[in-house]
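Predict the 3D structure for this chain.
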Amino acid sequence: MAGAKKKNTTAKGATLEDDVYKRIKSWIRAGKIPIAPRNSTLHRWRDYHSNARNSKIRFENVVEVYSTQGRVDDKLQPSLVIIFECKNYNSMVPVDDLEEFASKLSQLSGFRPKGYVVSRMGFQEGAKNFAESQGIGLIKLSQPVKGRLLVPP
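Done. Predicted structure below.
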């Protein structure tokens, strides 16, 4: 029974992750994420090394932005990495999830990470407060994204 529940939870999460991936593509094209498409690469999954863990951390829905013009080469180090963490819960996202995400972001080096947490149900008050204090963006998908998603200068 526990295995079936885990599989259903994983499938539910993957559904939101796939939806967000498609939305990010359209947000980039529509200018809601202020980056040049020719200088960026969208990844469904991307691993980054953590010195603290001495292993990799896997992130879903990652946009790597390069400061060079033209074709993106995998050997180039991105100057900015925008990470969209998806939480497909039946309730509002708690602060613990934001704290864990902030910890993972803090373990990245060599580029500036900008994190967003995406949810269909919204965020508890403590999660909102923590996200604001850490510069993590929150996106509730039941509401249209207005304006542009902010990234650091």
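The chain has a mean pLDDT of 84.
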